[in-house]
């Protein structure tokens, strides 16, 4: 039933909430969420996303085609019969301004005009954890509600409600690589029975369009108190997003939010693409050099890359393995010069005892002349014998993604043992692209 027409109860002591009508309490809950959202500051959080995909084990599925109803109903029982296909991790910064989310790789401090899926490019992503769903469910007149009773959440007594947002009221968009569709949704939320603070929100996409090739899409958000600028705010702490596809494959994204802090007017957050490029190397140049296109660099990793703890978005270091001569200027950049780059992908593709690992990296700058000199490089090859793997290939294409990324090199380590790590000293060959002028 809807809450329209219910009057706002007079303020009462927290211990008295249990004696009130649950639907009258819902009015207070909605006002509390709206008040929390209206006073929340501009802030920045780091989110670490662990992504896995699984498929039915052929021994159990035996090639049979299951209906969506049976796939969803059996999801819990099928966990032990699912084979892990891929696993990777992302580390991102998300800036929240007026309940809108903007994303960048961790530590970049610049947010360009692109969606999260355009930034990450490969694999499933989800947004809306910081305000979109709360606005639609608690602050609009688009949802209907039903009280479900009491439960225990995080060691506290909680009140549980169900909600539903119909198609004609929804702004929830579900997409795959081919299509996007506006989708109705429903779910439940739990609030602390003493304070009426939101504890958990669970969202189910309803009536998914057949062309999306999804049977189920469920998002679960846990909330916690975060103190910023001497005030307490309610922010998400964890989020799970589970997709069950029509072919029986399952994708799970588990997101942990950390380091949330308010940024003030003078904070350095850049949203313009050209300004972002200029700020990528914000240290003043003491010796500006021009690196022409067509030069070959041999670069060795200066650290181990471990899929068990590292993530796409992390900054990594490398060193020049050979001196680099700049013919026009007569300058020689010496062997051992340090380079800085960023992981763009770290994806494991699992087998029974062996796996493939795809490692994507973009080199961004090198330390020379007392400054960070910007780099634009395209990958050429991996150096045999430096990877501690039987086979490694290099490409500007991510696996399963047809478009080339000129500035990113992807290395596929084939048939490596589980727990394989890209060793320090792994060497690859790159070629310089036309330099961006330094102003």
Task: Please tell me about this protein's structure.
The protein is mainly beta and 439 residues long. The protein folds into 2 domains: 14-262, outer membrane lipoprotein receptor (LolB), chain A, CATH 2.50.20; 283-432, Lipocalin, CATH 2.40.128. It has 6 helices and 23 strands. It has helices at residues 22-39, 58-61, 68-73, 116-120, 132-139, 273-279; strands spanning 43-56, 82-97, 100-105, 144-153, 156-165, 173-175, 180-182, 185-192, 198-205, 214-228, 231-245, 250-262, 296-301, 315-320, 324-326, 331-333, 338-350, 354-368, 371-374, 377-382, 391-395, 409-417, 427-432. The strands form 3 sheets. It has a 19-stranded antiparallel beta sheet that branches. Helix 1 (22-39) packs antiparallel against helix 5. The longest helix has 18 residues, at 22-39. It is globular. The termini are far apart. The model is unreliable at 1-16 and 273-285 (pLDDT under 50).
List the defining traits of the structure above.
single chain, 439 residues, outer membrane lipoprotein receptor (LolB), chain A, Lipocalin, 19-stranded antiparallel β-sheet, 11% helix, 45% strand
Structural class designation: mainly beta
Shape annotation: globular
Low-confidence stretches: 1-16, 273-285
Q: How much helicity do the residues have?
A: 10-25%
Q: Which H/E pattern describes the elements?
A: HEHHEEHHEEEEEEEEEHEEEEEEEEEEE
Question: β content, as a range?
Answer: 35-45%
Number of domains: 2
Overall strand count: 23
Provide the CATH topology of the largest domain.
outer membrane lipoprotein receptor (LolB), chain A
- Mind summarizing the main beta sheet? 19 strands, antiparallel
User: At the first level of CATH, what is the class of the largest domain?
Assistant: Mainly Beta
Rg (CA only): 25 Å
The CATH architecture name of the largest domain reads: Clam
Whole-number mean pLDDT: 82
């Amino acid at each position: 039933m809807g809450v329209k027409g219910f009057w706002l109860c007079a303020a009462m002591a927290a211990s008295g909430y249990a004696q009130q009508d649950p639907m009258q309490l819902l009015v207070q809950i909605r006002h509390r969420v709206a008040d929390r959202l209206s006073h929340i500051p501009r802030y920045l959080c780091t989110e670490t996303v662990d992504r896995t995909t699984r498929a039915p084990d052929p021994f159990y599925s035996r090639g049979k085609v299951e209906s969506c109803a049976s796939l969803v109903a059996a999801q819990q029982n099928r966990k032990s019969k699912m084979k892990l296909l891929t696993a990777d991790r992302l580390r991102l910064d998300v800036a929240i301004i007026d309940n809108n989310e903007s994303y960048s790789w961790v530590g970049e401090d610049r947010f360009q005009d692109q969606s999260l899926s355009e930034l990450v490019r490969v694999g499933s992503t989800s947004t809306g954890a910081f305000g979109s769903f709360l606005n639609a469910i608690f602050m609009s007149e688009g949802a209907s509600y039903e009280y479900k009773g009491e439960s225990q959440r995080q060691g506290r007594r909680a009140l549980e409600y169900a909600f539903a947002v119909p198609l004609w009221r929804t702004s929830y968009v579900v997409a795959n690589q081919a299509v996007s569709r506006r989708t109705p949704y429903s779910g439940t939320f739990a609030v602390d029975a003493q304070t009426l603070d939101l504890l958990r929100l669970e969202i189910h996409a309803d009536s998914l369009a057949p062309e999306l090739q999804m049977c189920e899409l469920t998002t679960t958000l846990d909330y916690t108190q975060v103190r910023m600028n001497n005030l307490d705010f309610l922010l998400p702490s964890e989020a799970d997003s589970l997709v069950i596809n029509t072919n029986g494959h399952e994708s799970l994204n588990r997101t942990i939010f950390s380091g949330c802090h308010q940024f003030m007017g003078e904070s350095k957050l850049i949203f313009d693409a050209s300004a972002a490029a200029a700020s990528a190397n914000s240290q003043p140049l003491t010796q500006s050099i021009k690196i022409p296109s067509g030069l070959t660099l041999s670069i060795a990793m200066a650290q181990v890359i471990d899929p068990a703890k590292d993530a796409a978005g992390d900054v990594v270091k490398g060193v020049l393995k050979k001196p680099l001569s700049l013919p026009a200027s007569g300058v020689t950049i010496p062997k051992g010069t340090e380079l800085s780059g960023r992981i763009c992908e770290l994806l494991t593709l699992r087998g029974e005892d062996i796996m493939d690992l795809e490692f994507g990296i973009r080199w961004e700058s090198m330390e020379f002349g007392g400054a960070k000199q910007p780099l634009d490089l395209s990958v050429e090859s991996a150096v045999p014998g430096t990877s501690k793997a039987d086979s490694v290939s290099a490409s500007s294409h991510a696996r399963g993604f047809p478009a080339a990324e000129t500035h990113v090199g992807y290395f596929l380590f084939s048939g490596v043992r589980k727990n394989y790590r890209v060793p320090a000293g792994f060497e690859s060959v790159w070629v310089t692209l036309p330099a961006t002028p330094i102003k």
